[in-house]
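G., before I forget:
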Amino acid sequence: MTVLNDTGILQKNISIIGIGNSFRGDDAAGPYIIEYLRERFSDILGPVMDACSINIQLIDASHDPVLAGSIIVEGNPVIIIDAAEMGLKAGSYCVLKISDLKDSVSLRTVSTHGFNISQVLIMAETLGFSENIRIIGIQLDNTGHGDTISRKILSRTDEIVQKILEEVKKLI
Amino acid sequence: MNNLSIRVPYVTRVEGHGTIAVDLKEGKLIKSVLEIVEPPRYFEAMMKGYLYTDAAVISSRICGICSVGHQITSVKATEKALAFDVSDQTVTLRKLLVYGATMQSHILHIFFLAAPDLFSAPSVIPLAKTHPETIKMALRMKRLSNDICDIIGGRTIHPNRLVPGGFTKLPTREQLLWIKDKLENQMVPDAKTSFELLKSLADKFPAFSRETEYIGLKTDNEYAFYDGDVSSTDTGLTPEKDYLSITNEFVVSHSTAKHAKHKRSSYAVGALARLNNNYGKLNPLAREVADALGMKPIVANPFLNTVAQLIETIHVTEESIKILDTLLTTGIKAERPFVPAKLHEGTGVGCTEVPRGILFHEYTYDNRGRIVKANCVIPTNQNAQNIDDDMRELVPWMIANNFDKDKMTLTLEMLVRAYDPCISCSVHFLDVKYVE
């Protein structure tokens, strides 16, 4: 996670958090997007940060959803990227609010641990942190063992990144 | 109560999957075990043939919760096997990393896994409504401990700066100052509030005791986490290289995770075992809290492992502040990881106190630095037989105290949760089953 740079601590404004296990196929979609943005930070996020006078943190929360909760309760806007079973075509993505997690019976986030991101987000909402949270759910295809993400997801990376940038601008 | 059957398939609020099974027939306890149902993962076999630089990377993947502990123990075993020199600064930074990981894991267990039982809640989510400030505090504490691991290890889970011989990147003075400020001005006040909270909930812990053998690291100069001899409350000190004489792993039919025993039929590791071995080395605030909570050795109530975890959280906070004071005084020296001039055959043992107890890794390398043999002995394995032995005495104790079946089921689950088991690690391992 990049809370910090080489000279100290970045001022925290917007956090983009990827959730998922990098060794369970498409469950790694969230961490993959974070790595993709990290490698192109100055090209993709730099202009947005300069234009909007904001700082953006990229956080790979891996399979520790409680880490995402601990960031949310700091009160800054948060975008969460997570692979999800939404009954859509693989690679499709949706921008969700916490209320959607409770309202939609068809959405079931994927977690390799008992304490999943949906529970963390509902807990965050109960604590009064829901307005500035966006969840980008990416429809997964395969969660078998291995570090390969489906082409159907990889081929839509740029679209997903653009959607993230749109949401960043809305949250400012 | 003469006949009873309890099955808790998939015990919740633990890492991994296990089942509690209890059968009482005509007043005789037939079965009381924790069945571990996850398949073995064969990590030791997977590691064969890999280079010494890969050992920590692979073994850390045994578990996302315990990744820091596996990495540190792994690099220590490799360094012993290949006779690497490690600087004092590297050891100091590793201790800081171990303390950060200990805080992170203990806070998660105390507030998110164990606390709901103390508040009679099914999970932490209702607590967010009834005790919002407590949950916010817990999240704040966890965030800081995550940040410590991030700053020192490069990542909060599966750190990437920790290699045999040192660190690939060192923290800055500004980062160390930031951690120190946060520990002093955030973690210490939050830890004191946590103490008051647990004190107010003291009567919620079942008053059950069963003394066992408590095993943990011990050293002369500090409450041991990073190194020392293996200390048993029954038999005293054993050098870490002789760990197999302590662990004596064996298989049982109801578990895919190996069990362990030493002097008695079972032994305990973890926060309570460490406290029973290291109480005299607690830092001042941790000692004050331990005494106020009645936690003087020998503490034989396994449910109080959670309380021991809070005491340790306070202790490692104080210890981290001491370390940071030293590092900030001496300054961080630019240094690269030790690189050996020539590789040679060798065998080495590393052991570290990770959140759930003492962890052992042992590797044998060939003269090209490739792993010939690997062995990992995990804390949850070492506790597994002790949990079974606790359950065997707990069931009659609950019957004698007129617990109904629901209360018995909850208490059995609380017992297993108190050990904070990491089942994924143990099968490198909960559900309650009763038979009536």
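Chain A has one domain: 4-171. Residues 32 and 149 of chain A are 9 Å apart (CA to CA).

More on Monday.
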